[in-house]
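User: Show me a protein chain along with its predicted structure.
Assistant: Here is one chain, sequence first, then structure tokens.
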Amino acid sequence: MTAVFALATSLLWGLADFGGGLLTRRVPALTVVVVSQTVAAVVLGTVVVATGGWSEAGPQLWFAVAAGAVGPIAMLSFYKALALGPMGVISPLGSLGVAVPVSVGIIVGERPGLLQFAGVAVAVVGIVLAGGPQLRGAPVQRRAVLLTLLAAFGFGSVMSLIAEASTDVTGLFLALFVQRLTNIAVGGTALYASVRRGARALPEEGGGAAVLAALPALAFVGLADVAANGTYSLAAQHGPVTVAAVLASLYPVVTALAARGVLGERLRGVQAAGAGLALVGTVLLATG
């Protein structure tokens, strides 16, 4: 079940990243984060009330608060790094966040077998290559690299934190709800500060009407992100974190394939090779 839940996570995160990437071409990034997470919070709040999730409140929810605080910071750092570019360097570096939950798993005593170690190594290389690394001729600002590494650490930390935020499904709904509320608080504060500095909260073309028109897509991004956090938590609870984290981090492959299918973007040779290696690593992890 670990492999099933983790692969579902990579699918959901990949589609959420693809949808979020499209939306940020028309809507400010922080607005995308705040609105999408608000929609998700409304849905999750309804689920928590319906399932009596409040009864699962406990100290473990602080992990959800921490995940909710780190997530928007990581995403904003990543967006800023992408703006500084080049994307062919930034995107693959962002995938290195998988090292955080894998390291945590090893520290707490997990010892994958030889096939699984090989699968981890092959899959991580595939994940990085699937991002289409720009290996030469790419001047990179030090600030862009630092922002990307900060984002990668944040993404990996969210994976580790949310896995500790609940012990059952009902508690998971509550943990995800608390995470969303924290996302909104942190993202909303950042958006307010950004507007105070002169940035726009609404698109230049269309304003609030454009955000309303994009609401279904924003809802999809928010709910896909929630579902991905949930399936990852289940994956980490049902099996080794080292396996769950690597399989869940295959989302760059999904994003690249979505861009190929929807936008007609051609996969570069290095991306196709990365997708192939990621598939080989997946098979090794699943069979090991």
